[in-house]
Write a structure and sequence with these properties.
Chains A, B, C, D: Homotetramer. 4 copies of one chain form a homotetramer. Chain A has 498 residues and is an alpha/beta fold. Chain A folds into 2 domains: 275 residues, Aldehyde Dehydrogenase, Chain A, domain 1 (3-Layer(aba) Sandwich), CATH 3.40.605.10; 180 residues, Aldehyde Dehydrogenase, Chain A, domain 2 (3-Layer(aba) Sandwich), CATH 3.40.309.10. In chain A, strand 13, helix 13 and strand 14 form a beta-alpha-beta unit. In chain A, helix 3 packs antiparallel against helix 5. The N and C termini of chain A lie far apart (85 Å). Chains B and D meet through helix 3, helix 5 and helix 15 of B and helix 3, helix 5 and helix 15 of D.
Chain lengths: 498, 498, 498, 498
């Protein structure tokens, strides 16, 4: 059975209606075997307008629903996701090419954030604080913000929506989702699952969760519209810059998760067995198409040769192939463009003095063999994020230089060090250490937990999603002062008597 | 003695060097009496470049200074501001036209934020949090961000700098200040005071606090430069929109405090004595030139006539005049342009059906008599922020309509209700109440305490300064995970074994 | 079918084993109809010792399980409680005499705290904070504490365990439960449900959740044993005082939820319809046997007569009877002793000058008619908590006096005011307002949500359970400082060089 | 000049009145040279009663003063302490025998906490949180608690008062201080300094800060009195146990800082130079009379001999003597009893198989030479806190055993590890690592910063003072719910309609 056939069965099982497809719609070709499914019906600008009207109406009602009750919807969503886990995971595999374990992991991440957000629905803590004026009470309260547009990328076709939707729902905000044009099927499937949660919940307003499948015009219409209170966009730095500028021009709010160029520093005291495993997973997992994929390996010169040799050996036997097959660790790139990007980057790396240590060849369809490239310096290609499994290796002698190398790229998402030295580890985590939003010790750059805030600095866009107080992006803060005295004192001792 | 002479003496006493002035510089004319002081030397784009280089160097050093020690500098700054309070306050009066009590209040606000930031220097709390993986520790740490550019407006010529600088310094960031072209003298004076604190501190890096006097080109150069990690800009919505767009284009960070159009709702249960006093202060204080000035009065129709009559009476005897004089409550507008704006708005209001109840005339120089205008509807002029003492009055019958009126303007800074009803007060503070960043009960919209977060929504720009966790804008967040086990588990239960 | 028969069927359905019962055990007599079930096997001091050994072992293992994984057990517990909700609720009705809706509400509270604690399992936030010493990192981490003994009372026979157990489990602590001797059956049932969650979870250590049915000796043995890290005890002030003293003598930790003597202040602006309903529910719900039952009604003298008349009318038709019957609002007191206490208190009230307005008679078994007693002053009987449905009414003229009356009792659990005045409401909530742990406006004293911290001051014992940061009682705090520099600076600038 | 003469001059300079002294009062003998000063007038039980009445009155007024204004008093106290720093420090030296640098450090700690508490006065954050009921607002507010009794010990004769007083004042609580009978002079001096701050502040209520010099009876009267809302006691475990029991018996609140028995683990990867310096400071500083003094050295057997040799060498040349003399590192023990305790412990150690490596002799007066004793096992003397400079050394082979040794004492104050291994350091800081309230890496156990919470577990008493949220001990928490709807929903969906 082709991947497209598999997908069709799952979509039917999950209750995606036939009306979601139409001839002339978005073509769906699985990277797994190139098989094509039914084209997906696309929305246009008038659909965007209708969706925004519906979202505005939903917001007026939803913000009045007590947050713990909103949390109940998210809890039910978690239950439905648990029930559909295997199907959704397989669909991720079929549409995005992830191996089975990663597909399951992505759905688990959706479930985790639902559990987390359910608890959050009784928190959303603001502050009470003392006023300097007698007979006054001060409070800071977080209020619902308004409709949230979620623009997601193909590489996490469902988890990113869940990160945003679970928090937004609990915070009192409707959600409009524009998934990547490369992965509409998983979006349809997730929305069908969400419909079940909504049905069990009972009285959620219409327009609370909406899906807009479409191209750039749909995204642009959402981004430009002042009815969208928050644009949460995941994707390339180029896209993010455009979103940020448009939203800023209307003094809106955006939450950006853009490119990464993630490095690992390996020091002599590192546990090399662990380092090899961590490097392999984070450099070739999801075929190098995670935002947090390891792209730069910065090794102390004394241990570089040995480490590279071990990596080359591991790479040479990497099971590349159908991601559905047990044992496969590397599935396909998402499409032909990605393969071309892979090849172009390798060519540029060689032109800049690099030596391909292992891999770098392409196979059938969009399958490639992950590459390791030793580079003489952090040249242009290294400083650029190529969304493919290429690992550049550089060496250093002094730990401060390693940190400087790590920081000397435009992106600032994830970073890590492998070391058993307290001094090195803590320096890496210090104010003068890694400049990234994520900094790990003895863990690869990839694979964040939902309890922490996820996101990065510099060209990564500065947004934070998921745990910690990332929920604040989905609310507006209000400073409230109540005077219950019979007097009218002014702050800072100002006097003014008419 | 002219105001300019007064100012000259104070500047000398505070130690502002002669080199700060130069012929051909920025002209300084006091709104108090129109007298002109020495022109202030202006900086150009090459000064901006030099300042940014110095700030980058200062950052590299300052971020390594322990935060509690950085707090000591801010504590010393607070001490020096206390010592110079009377002089600085008078200079605010002379240059910005504020009455004495308001000038003192503004300096007190600087002092308050220094005390607050000193305490904060041992907090800047991140989180420790449990990892889902055995033998792992997770932490969220806030790190210094980088140089901060502060662009301030004439109406709070010194406090806004202090709000930003006190927090930025404690957070580990150098500060470059571009004051309003209308108020360079107070900036020079504050910098002279800050120099004393730096001298007592001893070993702060060069370039930690810098002042750039200049026009639009200086501001633009700062805003566009990627070396500025955070642009904190206070001013008009037009200016803010430009700043936001430029900064977004380079994926930088901005903190905006833009226009307000602040309303008070008065309900029948309100204490009318207090309401009258609160309205008068918040509508005419600082001659209507606060961001939080009361501009819209929304009164229940049953109490409107009586309230307006009392206000008209109070307005008719308002002491307008030299702000240095004891008893004066209303000083001058900042300049001739402001007077023209005042007159134009009144004319437009009349054209839109409004009736001027009291005031609205201009006197000598830039002195005007504050106006009350009854409006038939929330027409264009009411929805626009005119930086002058005009109070538009509208009536309502149903409390929900009052809230709808309050929210139906593009700005979202401050708001308030006068009522003794728990139901009305709490509804105003609810998720479906005021949409502003500040919401008060039985207090005017004006006069925030530094302990709360200050700022607003919608066209006000979304930034928050001063208290609560506003300091987070001056830092970058880092999610850290440390694996201290001998194993390498992946989040979400993903398995991947080379 | 007798209540005892009903109970037997439910216990069997929930899987409580026969070994839980034994002749000579604790007699179980339902207050609903006096029917007797099988006696419950009791534990002795050697069981306590064995339980504590097992708990110590469980602690050593459980504290190493990542908190989010511990949260998964609590999530499963919530699922199992949802599945058993109707049965558990009916058992609460049968054993404690609560009406159906209250029985369901109590089980819902267990479910709510499980949802909350599941989210909490990724939080348990400590702090990262800046050190005053260069090259140092400071952190505050919350660590598991150790075995927790939960001593619960008959009136919330299952919810209080859940409040404690859900938090304790997530925090890393085993739980030993000693339920009230009056309600062992619900405890057995809950433990059977918990066993299912444990079975689904899979690898929880033995001894994680234990149940000890028994009398005073069992409680005393638990309280005195240093292996119990935290004693969480709910019950009378007399019991709490003994627990506190014993635990203090071994420098252990206790969390006490003791007596309340909860008042409502009614002011002239109150919505009297709502007040009547709130008073009725909070004074007669659970037959006056909640810790938060309304016991004192403090009414402004101008509205007292009218309010009392309405209450008398409502009381006179209160449906008292079998709590299983639809429509019943007042079930039985827990036992004959409680009835005697009810009668004795009424007699004392009359002796102290009170007038019984309505109710005060006893019916069959332990059914009584709730009483309203007008009192001339806050005399001894009013200041004492009688666990029965007696509402004392006092009047006042000045609001400050009302607050003083409210505070002038030894207990400090819950309190409320009915008013529409902002000034009165906020004064009640101010530093000089209610001295209780719970203070409500336009809500009765009873019926807290799990998101807030629950507990009270003075003789109520000072403990806090459930929401907010109540979880901290179940953990120990550790202040950690890591020096990663090559230097050894001392705090406060101390120098000491060998 | 004798130490007593020095002290007399300082007391006069600081304005301590003659009435503070009286014949027949508390004898004051300086441990520095044994010289005796004027006896200090002692208070009796009737003074305690009067003080408590005054404190109750002060509380009623002070809790109404806005917290930021209360913070201003603490800021002024900080200023006055800065001005008196040298005098106070010298008095600490003269009365408690600390070396100059430590005396200065102790006063600096007072200053630091004042700065911290000043900032805190605008925080004291409670929470706003979402209600599950429509039209309801929930809040958690922290309210002033009531009079605080501070019982302090001789070894930190002034800092501990400041930790408590600065927080208590800001929190709205009056403070009654009962200093150690061994150090009344520093208490008198500090109170004279505080009087200046009060005078500058202007309108603080009488009885806000009170000093009661006296013996056990004074302490007991304070502890037993229900008017004391919080007893904050620092001292021996024996004393703390008595305090805890008495306070528990009246259901009051206590904050205990009792004995420590602090260990350092040294692993092979430790920087031995740093370890030697850290050990020397923390074992002999304050002549071994800090609660956080290092008492147990747990060294890996491979590095033990070398480390002990270096320590023995350093100890053999330790400058013991007059603490006023430049260069002195070890001053006297506090009195003859302390010397006897020192000698007795050494004798017991030898009896238990220990070998005195260096030191252990006594000199003139109460001067002794710090001792290092190698012990075969963690025997009784090692598990007991002797307040004198004795360092017991034990060895281990496996890191887990080292942690077990560290934890296997009744006390739980401070602990540390010297290592450069991430695995060891983080394991030490983990849920299964150190069981102490303080855990350091590459820092001795001694010398906490005021920003962290200070205190310990087990027999150390569980209290926390100083930074983090230690201020919560000085306030009471109130959970507030406001219903602003026209409906009366019950939590947990309970229905109850009369």
């Amino acid at each position: 059975m082709t991947a497209a056939d598999d997908a069709r069965l799952i979509l039917a099982r999950l209750g995606v209606p036939d009306t979601a497809f139409s001839t002339g719609g978005l073509p769906c070709r699985s990277p797994v075997d190139g098989s094509a499914g039914s084209p997906v019906r696309v929305h246009d600008r008038s659909d965007v307008d209708a969706a925004l009207s519906a979202a505005a109406g939903a917001f007026a009602a939803w913000r009045r629903v007590p947050a713990p009750r909103r949390g109940e919807l998210v809890r039910l969503l978690g239950e439905e996701l648990r029930a559909a886990k295997a199907d959704l995971a397989m669909l991720v595999t079929l549409e995005a090419g992830k191996i089975t374990s990663e597909g399951l992991g992505e759905v688990q991440e959706m479930i985790d954030i639902c559990d987390f957000a359910t608890g959050l629905s009784r928190q959303l803590y603001g502050l009470t604080l003392p006023s300097e004026r007698p007979g006054h009470h001060m409070r800071e309260t977080w209020q619902p913000l308004g409709p949230v547009a979620v623009i997601s990328a193909f590489n996490f076709p469902v988890a990113v929506w869940a990160w945003n939707a679970a928090l937004a729902l609990v915070c009192g905000d409707p959600v409009i989702w524009k998934p990547s044009e490369k992965t509409p099927l998983t979006a349809l499937a997730v929305h069908a699952v969400a419909e079940r949660a909504l049905a069990r919940f009972g009285d959620a307003p219409d327009g609370l969760l909406q899906l807009l499948v479409g191209g750039r015009d749909v995204g642009e219409a959402l981004v430009a519209d002042p009815r969208v209170a928050l644009v949460s966009a995941t994707g390339s730095t180029r896209m993010g810059r455009a979103v940020a500028t448009t939203v800023a021009g209307r003094l809106g709010r955006s939450l950006l998760e853009l490119g990464g160029n993630n490095a690992m520093i390996v020091t002599p005291s590192a546990d090399m067995d662990m380092a090899v495993r961590a490097i392999a997973f984070s450099a070739v997992g999801t075929c190098g198409q995670r935002c947090t994929t390891l792209r730069r390996l910065l090794v102390h010169e004394d241990v570089a040769d040995a480490l590279i040799a071990r990596l080359a050996s591991a790479y040479s036997t990497l099971p590349v192939g159908d991601p559905r097959a047990p044992g496969t660790l590397v599935g396909p790139l998402i499409d032909e463009d990605a393969v071309k990007g892979f090849e172009a980057a390798l060519a540029q790396a060689v032109a800049e003095g690099g030596t391909v240590v292992v891999g770098g060849t392409r196979g059938e369809g969009s399958y490639v063999r992950p590459a390791i490239v030793r580079m003489p310096a952090q040249s242009a290609v290294v400083r650029h994020e190529t969304f493919a499994p290429i690992l550049y290796v550089l060496t250093w002698r002094d730990f401060d230089d390693a940190v400087a190398l790590q920081n000397d790229v435009p992106q600032g998402l994830s970073s890590c060090v492998f070391t058993d030295s307290v001094r090195e580890a803590e320096a890496f985590l210090s104010a003068w250490g890694s400049d990234c939003g994520i900094a790990n010790v003895n863990i690869g750059p990839s694979g964040a937990e939902i309890g922490g805030a996820f996101g990065g600095e510099k060209e990564t866009g500065g947004g934070r999603e998921s745990g910690s107080d990332a929920w604040k992006a989905y609310m507006r803060r209000q400073t409230q002062t109540v005077n219950f005295s019979a007097d009218l004192p002014l702050a800072q001792g100002v006097t003014f008597e008419v």
